[in-house]
Amino acid sequence: MSIVGWVPSVASNVVDKAVHGGVADLTRMPRTALVGSPDAVLYRYDPAPGVQPLDAPPVLLVPPLGAPDFAYDLRRGCSLVEHLVTAGRTVYLVAYGRITFADRRLGMEHWVDDVVPRAVRDTCADSGAEGVDLLGWSLGGIFCMLAAAADPALPVHSLTVIGSPVDIAAVPLVAPLRPLAELTGGHGLSVVYQAIGSFPAPVVSWIFQLTAVDKLLTKPLTILSRLDDRDCLAQIEAVDHLMNNMHGYPGRVFGQIYHLLLRSNDLAEGTIDLAGRTIALKEIGVPVLVVGGENDVIAPLAAVERVAGLLTGSPEVRFHPAPGGHLGVLTGRRARTSTWTHLDRFLTDHATPAGRGGPPAEA
Questions:
Q1: In this structure, is residue 363 part of a structural domain?
Q2: Which of 183, 230, 282, 344 is the most exposed place for a label (fewest CB within 10 A)?
Q3: Domain CATH for 131
Q4: Which domain holds residue 224?
């Protein structure tokens, strides 16, 4: 950009940040609450004006615990929801609300056996479809996989998981803790989460920020050097807003993640014991798209890619690396031309009218 264009851009951005509170448009895509309870509400996003709806299965978005559901709708111009809706897709999302001390006894099975299956069936009932294109990010992706594996009859048309680690041994961030957990039998941390009942939102936010401490430290310099780049500044603001609105984890879920995933690394072998039975990922019988972030320290590529070899019952498994960290791979600026492109192609290749079965569309 020439100096002639640079100066007005910087001036406009500085004024908007200093006077108007920022440059990011955090307006959420309009949606309607359909059914549910305070701990799980199903929303349907409004169709985009003037866009012809696709005759395709509805997309159901499943968030993880910890992050707010607007991670899928981060900001205008960089929102997966906006992208899907403006493409003509019918989009639903199940939202959990804030986790409180009263939820401390909820385990992963609450989401695997109840929340996700109920959202899938309610989406089918509302849309008239026979199956949904199920999509989960991070722990939401693990919930989706386990729900589909636990009940192969669940009306799922396809499954997409983004940034969902199954091989915890491949996560450098927690790998050093595994020998210590084995040595203590997991009792050290167990005492902590059993005592406090849950992991509060500020702690979750602090942990997420710690994984990107280098970017946190250099953020002031990045902002100063990109004062002319409105899109970059908007993304930084949107990510800050998300980090300031993180949710807590129920103590029991955290305990299961600690014992079943971190200590035992059960999912790396394709099975997990949950609520008195064994769930095997090989039972998933629908096409699956797996996307991992090239710069993700929470769910590194190796930890995510491992699942591709475990989905032996799926008719097709696609794995794609994409640029970005744990949030960036889902809704970073480069996700618009990487992750979202892979998703569009996958959904199109496996499209059938309103999820009514039949062969997939030709690639």
A1: no
A2: 183
A3: 3.40.50.1820
A4: 3-355
